[in-house]
Amino acid sequence: DGGITQSPKYLFRKEGQNVTLSCEQNLNHDAMYWYRQDPGQGLRLIYYSQIVNDFQKGDIAEGYSVSREKKESFPLTVTSAQKNPTAFYLCASRGTSGISEQFFGPGTRLTVL
Amino acid sequence: GENVEQHPSTLSVQEGDSAVIKCTYSDSASNYFPWYKQELGKRPQLIIDIRSNVGEKKDQRIAVTLNKTAKHFSLHITETQPEDSAVYFCAASNIGAAGNKLTFGGGTRVLVKP
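Output (structure tokens, whole complex):
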């Protein structure tokens, strides 16, 4: 399971609280991505970053924020503005030399109590 | 933007039979189509992918076909085994576009009955 890690595996938060999910990779990949997965549904893109200090909104960015201060790290903050934050969050990374697969982390399951 | 539809949402097959999952996409600029397998509670993992300049690709019991004209692609699993039980996702991407973003289908839950 090395290469790309996420922590914690399970996270509980109260309504109205911000929470930050960690994503770290040692694959020397330039591009990193955050997805949200709801039960019985596909993966939806929240944010992505192609290079350090740059990131772009995905399809469902509202209520989320990210930073990319280091190549190996791409943390996601779920803010209190996210109306329905309970979900499984997956981070992925990809090399940028030609076509290459996205490697996924093990995911963080966030539950809002 | 790209939209990917995937069918069926669930698929139950007898061990040894074949399974077929179909996806359609909307953006004719998409040129890369990966398939991911996700076992319960685990991360998605790439099992096969195909580029738009190829019509078919095989890897042991798994094959993918692509029809660019009709904008659809399919995953074929032959001689299914219980360990093939998982959720399978198709995706589409335009490799030349900024971000090389993947758009995923809704997933197919495959159950292989022994």
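The radius of gyration of chain B is 14 Å.
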